[in-house]
Structures are given as C-alpha cells and as structure tokens.
Amino acid sequence: MKIALIGYGKMGHEIEKTARQRGHEIVCTIDINENDKFDSPEFVSADVAIEFTSPESALQNFRKAFAANVPVVSGTTGWLEHLNEIKAACENDGQTFFYASNFSLGVNIFFALNSYLAKIMNQFPDYDVRMEETHHIHKLDAPSGTAITLAEGILGNLDRKKVWSLNKSDHKNELEITAFRKGEVPGIHTVIYESEADSIRITHDAKSRKGFALGAVLAAEFTKGKKGFLGMEDMLNLHP
Predict the structure, then answer these.
(1) Residue 153 in contact with residue 164, Cβ under 8 Å?
(2) Catalytic option among 135, 161, 189, 204
(3) Listed residue (151, 170, 149, 178) closest to 162, CA to CA
(4) Residue of 173, 172, 193, 188 whose CA lies nearest to 120
(5) How far from 219 is each of 24, 28, 29, 41, 198, CA to CA, in Å?
(6) What distance separates the 2 farthest-apart alpha carbons in the chain?
(7) What strands lie across the sheet with 228-230, from one edge to the other?
(8) Which residues contact 59 (CB under 8 A, 6 or more apart)?
(9) 238 falls in which pLDDT band (50, 70, 90)?
(10) Is the dihedral of CA 86, 87, 92, 94 positive or negative?
(11) Which of 6, 9, 185, 220 is most buried, taking the most CB atoms under 10 A from its CB?
(12) Is the separation of the CB atoms in 233 and 152 below 8 Å?
C-alpha cells in the first residue's frame, strides 16, 4: 500500500517503522506548517492517510484529505463535536474514514471487557464506579478519547450512571473520571468498582506506542478499497 502520514512526531515515526516492516511504502509525510503537501502528487497518490495530530488541527486535516479523495485513518482525539460532519462526508460524498480512540488490540479487548463487566455490575447497586487515566505530559486533551469510550461502555450498560464528569463529582449519577498527566506514560486506564466490602479493578497499561502503531497500520490495510465510516468494531469481532 501507499501510505501518507499526517503528523510526523513520535507516533508518526513509530507508524512509519511498522508500515515499512509490513511492506508498505510511505509516499508523503505532513507535519506542522506543511499544509501545502496536501496538494502534492505524492499525497494524492496515497491509498490511505494515517492521521495522528492535535485536536485543533484534526478537522482541517480531514477536510484537506477528503478534498484529495484520500481515505483517512485517524487516532486523534478531542475533536468529536465535529463527528457528524465527517459522517456526513462519508454518507453523502463517498469519503472513507476510520476512527478509533485507541488502536491497541489490547485496549479494544479491554473495551469489550469493560462493557461486559458493566452489564454484570448493573445488578449490584452497592458498587459505585469511577475511572482513572494517566498519560504523558504532551497529551493535550482530557479525559482521553479512550477514557470517553470506556465511559460510554459503562453508561450504556449501568443504569445508575447517566453522564461522565472530569475530576471531582458530587452527584451519584455521574461517572467520575480523574485524569493525570505525568512523564512519558503511553497510557494507563483503570475502571474501579467499590463497595463497603471490597473493590474490583480492571486496568490496561500500555508499555509503548508499538501496539497503537500496529493497530493503525492494520486499520489502514482494512480500510483500503472500502467506503464509509469505519471503526474497530468493523475490523475486530470482540463483543460478547
């Protein structure tokens, strides 16, 4: 495959290494202040663009890729208030977009486990639930997209929680998410159910960016030749 990289920081370099190991060609890299490359023949030739940038630049990146009719695989979080625009471009304009809040295979297994546990805990109201997430100091959005996906899995299955809130909550129907930013932590997410008798914790602890990079390249391979709005649930069969 011919792959373009939008965002050429640590994650972009890790994706490049993984893509090359799997036999793919990197035809274009676009970093900050290189927007003119969206109009280049190299970018237009790409089978898919993999995008990991910032919440502020993501939407414009998607629009520019769509203007060149290049499918996009994105792992950028913090822009989802514009999700309907991207879905409309897929449905009405024939564009292709694959979004995941986290491309790690282990995290997506964790998503399925989290939803299943919430269904079980719906029967046990003595347990309150909260969440903690820790990332490196360079991560700009909080809570993480992964934490929001986990929260949605809980809210969809646990009747006693109606909304999530960032940091301290005083309302019983709110799912409290505490976000920590320190060091170079790739990502730790913990869901905690607690009663007077005991506590139940499930944790995913990413060791490096390699798992995210592999998942993004696998998503690019899956996306080639397809149309519409896609996600990890289309690529993996992990739901009970």
Answers:
(1) no
(2) 135
(3) 151
(4) 193
(5) 13, 18, 18, 23, 39
(6) 63
(7) 25-30, 2-6, 48-51, 72-74, 96-99, 228-230
(8) 79, 82, 85
(9) low
(10) positive
(11) 6
(12) no
Tokens describing residue 96? 């292709």
Sign of CA dihedral 152, 158, 159, 165: negative
Reply yes or no on whether 24 is catalytic.
no
For the question of residue 135 being annotated catalytic, the response is yes
Of the candidates 208, 155, 218, 160, the residue with the CA atom closest to the CA atom of residue 186: 208
Question: Are 25 and 6 in contact, with CB atoms under 8 Å apart?
Answer: no
C-alpha to C-alpha distances, 130 to 89, 102, 195, 209, nearest whole angstrom: 36, 20, 12, 26
Give burial (CB, 10 Å; 0-12/13-18/19+) of 23: exposed
Of 56, 67, 73, nearest to 5 by C-alpha is 73
Beta bridge partners, 177, equal: 131, 166
pLDDT category of residue 68 using cuts at 50, 70 and 90: very high
Beta-carbon count within 10 A of 63 CB: 16
Strand partners, 3: 26, 48
For 167-208, what is each residue's pLDDT tens digit?
877 889 999 999 999 999 989 999 999 999 999 999 999 988
Q: Which of 2, 37, 139, 210 is catalytic?
A: 139
